[in-house]
Amino acid sequence: QVQLAESGGGLAQAGGSLRLSCVVSKSILDIGASGGALGWYRAAPGQERDVVARYIGTSDVIYGSSVKGRFTISRDDAKNTLYLQMNSLKPEDTGVYYCRADQVENDPLPRVVEYWGQGTQVTVTS
Fold first, then answer.
1. Which residues have a Cβ under 8 Å from the Cβ of 23 and sit 6 or more positions away?
2. Which H helix or E strand runs over 4?
3. What is the C-alpha separation between 118 and 92, in angstroms, rounded?
4. What is the pLDDT of residue 14?
5. Distance (Å, rounded) from C-alpha 42 to C-alpha 15?
6. Distance CA 119, CA 66 (A)
7. Beta pairing, strands 37-43 & 49-56
8. pLDDT, tens digit, for every residue of 92-118?
9. What is the DSSP letter of 32?
């Protein structure tokens, strides 16, 4: 079992910045090193969750097309914490932001299990 707790959401004006944090209950280095992934997802109002930024393994990073150049994902392995720095915010960035860990588990064969945090609301006003 992996537990994730997001924080840092809130209200921001367009053009502003917010920084989200996600504390993970186990070693994020181990999750990545064993073939897993860690990332941020966003559920815009009335829409499904979509990837914002994601680490695959320990270092490969992908970004959603709408946030490239504005958002930066980072990690502190010593603190088992994932971050999302959001700059140049736009109203369309509004939504609930979720942290997700994809852990490879042997059950008994290897399979990927997804663990989600509870989400944090980000609202951007124009």
1. 4, 5, 7, 79, 80, 81
2. strand 4-7
3. 21
4. 98
5. 19
6. 20
7. antiparallel
8. 999 999 999 999 998 888 999 999 999
9. H
The bridge status of strand 71-76 relative to strand 95-106 is unpaired
Contact yes or no for 15/126 (Cβ under 8 A)? no
108: cis peptide before it, omega within 30°?
yes
Rounded distance between C-alpha atoms, residue 31 and residue 58, angstroms = 8
Please give the helix or strand (H or E) that residue 55 lies within, else none. strand 49-56
Strand order in the sheet with 71-76: 4-7, 18-24, 81-86, 71-76
Q: How far apart are CA 105 and CA 102, in angstroms?
A: 9
CA distance 123 to 3: 25
**The pLDDT of residue 107:** 80
Q: Which residues, 6 or more positions from 112, have their beta carbon under 8 angstroms from its beta carbon?
A: 36, 102, 103, 104, 105
Name the nearest CA neighbour of 58 among 43, 39, 71: 39
Contacts of 65 (CB under 8 A, 6+ apart): none
Residue 65 tokens read as 């097309």
Is the distance from CB of 35 to CB of 44 less than 8 angstroms? no
